[in-house]
Design a protein that fits this description.
The protein is of the alpha/beta class. The protein has a domain of 207 residues: Ribokinase (UDP-N-acetylmuramoyl-L-alanine:D-glutamate ligase, 3-Layer(aba) Sandwich). It is built from ten helices and 13 strands. Helix 5 links the parallel strand 9 and strand 10.
Length: 321
């Protein structure tokens, strides 16, 4: 007699088109400042906003608004700023599966002094997991097509994460943010060589490469990473790529916009680019989507306040055919 054992159905891992992994921030943004602050003086800002920020939260929220299936891998604590961030993520409909809730304080606050042409930051952070630790936890808990890091993570353990992604067929993109390291570091070059997309801004690209022009910087970086996108603010963006479908370079002008605050605009550009990339759009079209999303984001305070929805993007694409 054969014994029939009951079938055990193990829960499947959640699947996302893209996982964005990084720390949340709360951004306290002062706008409309008349001058730069000086020691021993006091200036008054006509406008103050508290918004959720940080490259990970900004990009995840913007992707969600563009109807992308996105998971956010981050940590929240039990402090005031974490609770504010949790409320904002809930309002935006962000999937909380990959968000780790801690019983201790995890304060991450940036004070932004925002001017139309640029901004200055003062930041405080409590200790948190590294990018590699956070990514490892997310990849153990979920599957995805793509994973995005809001900054260039330069640690030996990141190479293990990138190897795991390559084995699983997961593409990886990274923004840059300010880093002291340059291409003179073999580890930096090795990490960049494992990426599918690298997305610095112009200042970061010039510093990283030591180049004296954006053209030289992108040519140098594109010898390491198959697709490089350099964001240039009001000058638009330039991309250079190579792959099985050929190679190319494009330079897409910025979309004119009334600038209120540039904080987080690069993160929102990344979301627009990745939304198109995940739909297998040509790279030039990905840059165009990124430019549109970035242009809308600067019309409000913080990166996501005026980040576009999918319906807005669709209407704009229809108008500009």
């Amino acid at each position: 007699m054969t014994t029939a054992f009951p079938t055990v159905n193990f829960p499947a891992k959640p699947f996302y088109d893209v996982i964005v992994t990084g720390s949340y921030f709360c951004d306290l943004v002062f706008t409309g400042l008349p001058t730069l602050p000086q020691l021993g003086t006091e200036i008054y800002a006509p406008q103050l906003d508290l918004v959720i920020g940080g490259g990970a939260a900004n990009t995840a929220i913007a992707l969600r608004r563009l109807a992308v299936n996105v998971g956010l891998a981050t940590e929240l604590g039990d402090d005031l700023f974490s609770r504010f961030a949790a409320d904002q993520l809930r309002v935006e409909g962000i999937d909380a599966t990959l968000i780790n809730q801690s019983a201790s304080a995890l304060r991450r606050l940036t004070v932004s002094l925002s001017y139309p042409q640029d901004r200055a930051f003062v930041t405080y952070v409590d200790p948190a997991p590294t990018s590699a630790e956070r990514a490892a936890r997310a990849l153990a808990s979920a599957d995805c097509r793509h994973i995005h890091f809001p900054g260039l993570s330069i640690t030996p353990t990141m190479l293990d994460i990138l190897t795991d992604c390559r084995t699983r067929g997961i593409n990886v993109s990274m923004d840059c943010q300010h880093r002291a390291e340059t291409l003179q570091s073999p580890l930096v070059c090795e990490i960049l060589s494992q990426l599918a997309i690298f997305m610095p801004n112009e200042t970061e690209a010039l510093r990283l490469t030591g180049a004296d022009s954006v053209e030289t910087a992108i040519r140098t970086l594109a010898e390491i990473t198959p697709c490089v996108v350099i964001k240039r603010g009001a000058a638009g963006a330039i991309a250079r790529w190579r792959g099985i479908e050929g190679a190319g370079t494009c330079e897409i002008p910025a979309i004119p916009s009334v600038v209120i605050d540039t904080t987080g605009a690069g993160d929102i550009f990344n979301a627009g680019f990745l939304a198109a990339y995940l739909e297998r759009q040509p790279i030039a079209e990905c840059v165009r989507w990124g430019n549109y999303c970035g242009a809308l984001s600067v019309r409000g305070v913080g990166g996501t306040q005026t980040a576009p929805t999918r319906s807005q993007l669709t209407a704009w694409l229809t108008e500009t055919v």
